Amino acid sequence: MKYSAKDHAFVYGVIAQALIRQGGEAKSVLEESIKVYGAQRGSRMGQTADAFGDQRTMQTYLLYGEWVSAAGEMIVDVTEETPCAVWHVHKCPWNEAWTELGMLDVGKYYCKHVDRELVHGYNPDLELGVGETQTNGDSYCYFKWTGAEITPANELENAKISEKVGTVRLRNWAYHMAHIYKTMGEVIQKRLGCAARSAVFFEADERLLSRYGQHLVDLMHAGLIVDFWVTPSLKPVELLPVLFQD
């Protein structure tokens, strides 16, 4: 089965809602888990850029993302090109999914933190300007890519890098879903203990089972052995099954 950004939103949403029901420090724990998740993804992007010999700038950050949107999935209006690019995102699959599923209560925390932490994970010296978010009731999401200017010269350089890298940078949605599943669990256990983690994931797994079936739950559990701080790009991941053979 092929998954999508909306499935990623659902995995996050069921864990986040189960966590919030724990009360106490739950909101703080949720926000920390999003920050760690973003830092891990950004770090992997940076490792891939390093492997291709590119500097970790805001310009290259926009070229090393680990997913691409499907046709019609996003609507982005570039409102400024210089001295740095500014985007107004009017449509995104996460906001759509959380609106449809009644998960905006936790979706708003994801949007508050994840993109800034992705950038910091890529390069802690970079700063992403964020403002309005749809999950918080605004009509668009605001992004100011400080250091990424849209010029003919930069667009030519971007095209060269994109051709060089190809699809090596991309991860499928099952990978991203397993990533957020594992990282949220690790932060919950670190902050609240094993019992709280078990309670949260018992509820989350039941909702995942109901929506997707046992295979998806098993897939998320298999991902618990993956180190999501390390990029799989340019590594012989096809050899991993050998580690589990007699």
Fill in the keyword field for this structure.
globular; 9 helices; alpha+beta; 246 residues; 4-stranded antiparallel β-sheet
Question: Could you explain how this protein is built, in words?
Answer:
- With 246 residues, the protein is α+β, with helices and mostly antiparallel strands.
- The protein has one domain.
- Helices cover 55% and strands 9% of the residues.
- The chain contains nine helices and four strands, in the order H-H-H-E-E-H-H-E-E-H-H-H-H.
- The chain has a four-stranded antiparallel β-sheet.
- A hairpin with a 4-residue loop joins strand 1 (75-80) and strand 2.
- The model has no long low-confidence stretch (mean pLDDT 97).
Task: Summarize the helices and strands and which ones pair or pack.
Elements: H1 5-20, H2 26-51, H3 58-61, E1 75-80, E2 85-91, H4 93-101, H5 104-122, E3 128-130, E4 141-145, H6 152-165, H7 173-192, H8 194-212, H9 214-222
Antiparallel strand pairs: 1-2, 2-4, 3-4
